[in-house]
């Protein structure tokens, strides 16, 4: 009996990752269907999904796993991403106006050129994220972000309308107090 089990063990070890991946794909497909039908997907696994250019305006994605997802140029205006896992996500050029990102993990995220006007970034983990050329006018954000050396704020528009200078070439940051910037609308 033990000999038969040992013969099947290598086959089981080879098939297990395949079955797990198929199960994850099935769950991800169901989550996508739910998201399309309801505009909500609470605590779903959407990791690695390509939402590039997608219209997710006002969608409820609380506690959703979006690790490694591509949201480049996506419309996430007023989306609820509270407690979401956004590690290694691409949000380059995305419109996050009024989005709730509080308590989210935005570690190693690319937000280059993103519009985060009036968004909520309180208690969000932003380590090693790229906010260069992003718009943070009227965003709720902790002072820690502005002081953090691990966050790229090159030419970022701050909540008070000033633009960051420096940190583009690993130099210290300084604020350009005289350079006020008007709020801008992103084309949809």
Overview of the molecule:
- The chain has 188 residues and is mainly alpha-helical.
- The chain folds into two domains: 1-38; 40-188, Pectate Lyase C-like, CATH 2.160.20.80.
- Helix content is 22%, strand content 6%.
- It contains two helices and two strands.
- It has helices at 2-38, 143-147; strands at residues 162-165, 174-180.
- It has a two-stranded antiparallel ribbon with strand order 1-2.
- Strand 1 (162-165) and strand 2 (174-180) form a beta hairpin.
- The relative contact order is 0.09.
- The model is unreliable at 8-23 and 170-188 (pLDDT under 50).
Which terms would index this structure?
188 residues; mainly alpha; Pectate Lyase C-like
Quick summary:
The chain has 188 residues and is mainly alpha-helical.
What's the topology here?
Blueprint: H1 2-38, H2 143-147, E1 162-165, E2 174-180
Organism: Komarekiella delphini-convector SJRDD-AB1
Protein name: Pentapeptide repeat-containing protein
InterPro entries: 5peptide_repeat, Pentapeptide-BTB/POZ_domain
């Amino acid at each position: 009996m033990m000999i038969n089990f040992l013969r099947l063990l290598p086959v089981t070890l080879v098939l297990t990752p395949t079955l797990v991946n198929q199960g994850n794909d099935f769950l991800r497909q169901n989550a996508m269907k739910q998201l399309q039908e309801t505009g909500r997907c609470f605590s779903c696994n959407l990791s690695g999904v390509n939402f590039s250019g997608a219209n997710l305006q006002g969608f409820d994605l609380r506690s959703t796993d979006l690790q490694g997802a591509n949201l480049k140029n996506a419309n996430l205006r007023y989306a609820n991403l509270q407690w979401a896992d956004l590690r290694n996500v691409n949000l380059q050029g995305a419109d996050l106006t009024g989005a709730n990102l509080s308590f989210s993990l935005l570690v190693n995220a690319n937000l280059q050129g993103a519009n985060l006007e009036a968004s909520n970034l309180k208690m969000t983990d932003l380590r090693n994220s790229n906010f260069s050329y992003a718009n943070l006018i009227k965003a709720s954000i902790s002072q820690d972000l502005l002081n953090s050396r691990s966050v790229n704020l090159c030419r970022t528009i701050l909540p008070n309308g000033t633009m960051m200078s420096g940190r583009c070439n690993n130099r210290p940051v300084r604020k350009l107090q005289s350079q006020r910037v008007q709020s801008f609308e992103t084309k949809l």
